[in-house]
Each structure stands twice: as structure tokens, then as C-alpha cells.
Amino acid sequence: MTSFQAAAGETPPPDAVHPRDSSPQTPTSVSRLGETVRDFVQRWGAVWVEGEITAWNKRGGHVFGRLKDATGDASISFRLWSSTLQRLPDDLAVGDRVIACVKGDYYVKSGEFSYTVSAMRHTGLGDQLERLERLRATLRAEGLFDPARKRPLPFLPHVIGLITGERSDAEKDVHRNAELRWPEVRFRTIHAAVQGDRCVPETLAALAALDADPEVDVIVIARGGGDPQTLLGFSDERLLRAVAAASTPVVSAIGHENDHPLLDDVADVRASTPTDAAKRVVPDVSEQRALVQQLRSRARTRLTQRVAHDIAQLEQLRSRPVLRDPESMLSARAQEVWTLLSRGRDQSRRRMDAATRATAELRASLRALSPGATLARGYAIAHIGDGVILRDAAQAPAGAPVVVTVARGSFAARSEGEVAESATPAAVDEASARPL
């Protein structure tokens, strides 16, 4: 209280009284008390604490849970905001032993005390998780996680190779669910340790044996759930590279939905549980039968529709006049064909007659111009021995041999020299022109 208030005998308001100065005469307020506690808690800073998760409830993307001490004598509640949850491992669950970085929070309005988690990881797995993350980055860089290299599962495998623990629930789940879906399914099961030091070598030997079997079409590696420590064998680099190099498709069915060993990323198919693996490797016979019936029904419907459509088209074509009475088209064109045929005959005959007359005229002209016709009228052709035709009597001096060609044949003669003028061609023409 101030000196003025003390001198005046006034009582200060509760908000003005610090909790350590409170008394029955000068009490503090609830809000002042809450603010004092909040300020005190905030001065603590962050604390690393170890415990077991006993509650893990998701609401609105956030997690509200509780951590219990190893002795079981104490527990705390915590809040984990969604932004922080995205940075944490996906496999955190009730029952896990963890170490968490927490910071106290006191809410003045409700008077509640809680802790906000800024980091959390499994106890004792810090170094191992770091190594696994480095291995994950290496394998991803090498392309072992690439979806393009994943091999598709066969539609209906002849034999399913199964690697699992002996007399395990995982083996029973895979067999039971696969046989429910396809009763004739066949398995070749090889038991191997699914945790501990024997896990990796026995799983590698089983994988090599099944991969070498030509009857095995797909290999399932199955195990029930467990804490991350027991699942470390399925993140071993030797096993991961063997699975990537296998020629047979491999299905990883390790643990439950939240379990995520590196085998899930390298395998060709990741199944959330062994039961899910059985559903992935064999089809459901009832679904396939229903699909076959559906396809048959669709094929029958389509075929019926196609036949009905073709029949309707055929009837439509048959109803056309040209197909209903095909001879009518021929009858209508018969007279036209006969007319064209007659016209063609007449034109051919006229052209033949004209060509015959022209040929006769040409033949007569050729005969009139032919040397044979001239020779037939009594004329002759005389030429000397070298084939020169005589056109002048001077060309054949007396005693020269002459060949004379008449209408029928040739004969040899000898020139007696040039004769009198009365025997010249002009005299001959004049004599032949005289009347007898």
C-alpha cells in the first residue's frame, strides 16, 4: 500500500496487492495471483523430461496427452500443436517411452497448468533414428524409393511366398484372409525370426530361397506390431538392398498402420497390416465372379443391340424400291440400252460403208498412177546395164545391151542406134491417134 493510502487509512484494491503482501485485510485478486503464477512458470524455460505416453488424443490436428514417470508415482499432461507434430516421428503412440522437451504453461482464465511439447523422440533411439534417417536419404538418392522401379503384383499368383514368424498371428491373418478371398490360393511359407540378431540373416536366407523358386510369383514379408526398437531389423541396409535386387515382387506387411520401417519404402507394395497384404496379393473370388457376370451382361446387351440395329438397317435397305423390285431398274433401262445399241450399229455401218468407198477410190487412184497400169497399156521401160532408165535414144548407142521391162516380165535387147524421126515417140503418138 502507498504511504498516502496508509496515512489516510484506505484499503488498496485487490489488483494492486502482490500475493506475497496479501492479508485478511488486504487480499489480492484471483487474476493477480494467476498472473504471478504465470510469470513465475514462464521463467522456468524449457525442460527435457523422460516418461511413458499414457494418453494420446488428437483433436483438431493437435495432440493432448499425458506422460507417466517410470515409477508410476507421477504424471503430467501436455499439449502438442499441429505445427510441432509435423516434425515428429509418425510412430509415436501410447505405451512408447520417450524423452520430450516441454515448457510449462499456466492459463490465468481457467487456472489450469499444462506443458507444451516442442520436441519428442523415443528413448534410446536417438542415435539409431539419426542413422536411419541418413540411410533413408542415401537410398532415396540412389532411386530405391522411386515408384518407377516398383514392380506390379500379378493378378492371380500361382504360389505366394510368405516370410513370417513361426506360429505368429501375422501368418494366421495372411492365410485366413487370403483363403477367404480365393480358396485355392497356395502358399510357400518360410519361418524366420522377426526381431533380434537373427532377424536379418534369416529373413535374407528366406528371401533368397523364395526369389529363386520359379513357382513363387509374389513374396510377402509379414510381422505383427511392435515398438520401434523391435522393428529395426526391417530397416537394415542389407535386407533393403536384397529386396530391391529381387526379381520377384515383394510386399511389406510390417506392424500396424503407424509402423513405418524403411522396408515399406523399398518394397514394391506397402501393406498397412498383414491382413491388408492378403487383400492385396489375391483377388476376391466373389468380386471377380460378379465382375464376370457384369461383363457378360454388358456383352450380351451390346451384342443384342448391335444385332437389332443391323436387322433394322437391313430391313430399311430391303424396303427401298430398287431392292424390293430389282428388275424394274433393268426394265426401265432396257429400252435405252436397245436404242443406244441400234444407234451404235447404224453409226458403225455408215462408217464402214464410207471407209469402203474411200478405200475403193484410193485403190483406183493408185492403179491409175501405178507404173504397172502404164505397162499394161503396151508401154515398156528400157534401161541399160547399170540400171539407168533410158529417156533419150542417145543414151543407148548402137550395140549397147538394153533390158526392156513390159507388163509381164523383162527381156534383153541390143540397141541398133538411133532410128529415123518417123519412129520417135511423137510419130508413134500421132500414129496411134489415127483412126483405124
From TrEMBL:
Residues 144-362 form the Exonuclease VII large subunit C-terminal domain. It is found in: Cytoplasm. It catalyses: Exonucleolytic cleavage in either 5'- to 3'- or 3'- to 5'-direction to yield nucleoside 5'-phosphates. Residues 22-31 have a biased composition (Polar residues). One of its GO terms (biological process) is DNA catabolic process. It is an enzyme of class 3 (hydrolase). Keywords: Cytoplasm, Exonuclease, Hydrolase, Nuclease. The keyword RNA-binding does not apply. Residues 29-121 form the OB-fold nucleic acid binding domain. Transmembrane segments: none annotated. GO terms for molecular function: exodeoxyribonuclease VII activity; nucleic acid binding. Pfam families: Exonuc_VII_L, tRNA_anti_2. GO terms for cellular component: cytoplasm; exodeoxyribonuclease VII complex. Residues 1-31, 414-436 are annotated as: Disordered. It comes from the Bacteria. Its EC number is 3.1.11.6. PANTHER family: EXODEOXYRIBONUCLEASE 7 LARGE SUBUNIT. Heterooligomer composed of large and small subunits. Bidirectionally degrades single-stranded DNA into large acid-insoluble oligonucleotides, which are then degraded further into small acid-soluble oligonucleotides. Belongs to the XseA family. This is Exodeoxyribonuclease 7 large subunit. It comes from Microbacterium saccharophilum.
